[in-house]
Amino acid sequence: MASQYDVIVVGSGPGGYVAAIRASQLGMKTAVIERESLGGICLNWGCIPTKALLKSAQVFEYIKHSADYGITISGESQADFGAVIKRSRGVADSMSKGVQFLMKKNKIDVINGVGKVKAGKKVDVTAADGKVTEYEAKHIIIATGGRARQLPAVPFDGVKVIEYRKAMSLEKRPDSMLVIGSGAIGVEFAYVYASMGTKVTIIEFLPNVVPVEDEDISKELAKQYKKLGIDIYTKSEVTKVDTSGKGCKVFVKTPDGEKTFEADVVLSAAGVVANIENIGLEEVGITVDRGKIVTDDYYRTNVEGYYAIGDVTKGQALAHVASAEAIICIEKIAGQPHVEPLNYNNIPGCTYCSPEIASVGYTEKAAREAGYELKIGKFPFTASGKAKAAGTPEGFVKVIFDAKYGEFLGAHFIGNNVTEMIAEVVAARKLETTAEEILKSVHPHPTMSESIKDATEAAYGEAIHL
């Protein structure tokens, strides 16, 4: 007889564990199946440990420039790479233990092993010793997440050609690194390693670094990275990596012809692919399109009783997206009133390099293509008292409004700590706040966040501080 549950969640990342907790809160008997560590990639190998690495890199940068703050440090400062990695892993472990506590607190059964969905609302779980146990639930949620995309021309070997998991657990800092791809993963690791002394080169296939961002943001990051000594090649493609020698010989097709680069390590950061293989989708008959599980607005698949959330679906592959989808999915299952579908055009994106990047809504290009007449304002942090006092005047705030009605179409930030600012715009857009209301909202001074109001003033020809 299979063990019976109301909800079984396959995967315990920020989608899976949130779904399980919300289900338990709503009175459902719940289990989570996890093949590795609770918290999934985000807590163990993604969001959290990378931020620990970035903080260490930032602290090292502060120390190197302490004289700019009137502080003299005698002797040469050095980054203990092994200790930096150890701290990052410790932070990840503590967060995973936190999820264990939440599972116990919410009386959720944790089943260790590899889950495979079956017809009849059943799941087989294969334990480490090979034993297979069948479980059954009224509702089965697939939240198996994603993994690093492997390019055909750049296969991983785990030593010289690596992906993000290995990049945050290397035993020794390489003298040189070539990074393929300049999305969030690529530029974050580029900053970590470059700040600690590694010579970093970024190869990007598209015309701009951080290609999903507004073009002004991309240009600013490229400028700041070049100051840091990072070489950037856009409109370029890695065609081959030769690892037969001591390091890597990388062949790259650029707009100026074929070039050859040498690096100790190649980090492939060319995106994420969904973990949907060998989890029973074909046997159950769940529809897949272009590598993603097809769902409706409430994450129901085409097979009754089966759901999918997070990186395995069409939405942005972001932890907070997975968590939001999880809550919507569970509340709809529970029959909660007024469950609202997620607005994917109001999802904040954050990149934790230095300077940080945060954005939400339309880019300028997308807004124009959508037919809007625009009012655009920019406020540079060189004019911000808080940024100047902090010694971080790099970057700016850019806001985009519909000229006709004042609708807040989008915002794009680059600078110190801007990832802590973007939520104001997300909430404003959710509440259908107009430019006029931003102008009349008193912002505290001195703060970085007042630059949102300053940029709005600039958009409407009312700038006080420019």
From TrEMBL:
Pfam families, A to Z: Pyr_redox_2, Pyr_redox_dim
Annotated family: Belongs to the class-I pyridine nucleotide-disulfide oxidoreductase family.
Keywords: Cytoplasm, Disulfide bond, FAD, Flavoprotein, NAD, Nucleotide-binding, Oxidoreductase, Redox-active center
Xref: SUPFAM superfamilies: FAD/NAD(P)-binding domain, FAD/NAD-linked reductases, dimerisation (C-terminal) domain
Predominant localisation class: cytoplasm
Cofactor(s) recorded in Swiss-Prot or TrEMBL: FAD
Enzyme class: oxidoreductase
Catalytic residue positions: H445 (proton acceptor)
Annotated disulfide bonds: C42-C47
Residue stretches making up the FAD/NAD(P)-binding domain: 5-326
Family matches, as InterPro entries: Class-I_Pyr_Nuc-Dis_Oxidored, FAD/NAD-bd_sf, FAD/NAD-binding_dom, FAD/NAD-linked_Rdtase_dimer_sf, Lipoamide_DH, Pyr_nuc-diS_OxRdtase, Pyr_nucl-diS_OxRdtase_dimer, Pyr_OxRdtase_I_AS
Protein name (record): Dihydrolipoyl dehydrogenase
Binding site for NAD(+): G181, S182, G183, A184, I185, G186, V187, E188, E204, G271
Any one GO cellular component localisation term in the record: cytoplasm
Subcellular location: Cytoplasm
GO molecular function: dihydrolipoyl dehydrogenase (NADH) activity; flavin adenine dinucleotide binding
Details of cofactor binding: Binds 1 FAD per subunit.
Binding site for FAD: K51, G115, D311
Originating gene: lpdA
Ranges for domain Pyridine nucleotide-disulphide oxidoreductase dimerisation: 347-455
Note: The active site is a redox-active disulfide bond.
Enzyme Commission designation: 1.8.1.4
